[in-house]
Amino acid sequence: MTTRILLAVLIMAVVTFLTRATPFLFFSRRKPPAFLDYMQRYAPPVVMSLLVLSSFKDIDFSSSPHGLPAFAGAILTAALHLWKRNTLLSIAGGTATYMILIRLL
After folding, report:
1. What is the pTM of this model?
2. How many other β-carbons are positioned within 10 Å of the β-carbon of residue 73?
């Protein structure tokens, strides 16, 4: 059983490494197509927008605390990111605020 688990982890690690390294190897001597430049520029903001919108979809505004923890977490995340431009700090601060408020309210 342990051998099977270790083998599965090893295979997953190799596949993950190869999927991360392949674009660098493939495009090391040629310019990526325009489509990839477009995706690189516009995909992250679209994905972030979808994540933000999906985090607010289940808020019940008819009962207390009326979405206050989610909105406070989102506002603090945005404020920290605009202030420090540190993604890890922004996400950690917003998540901590949300988790504390859902326990207190």
Report:
1. 0.64
2. 22
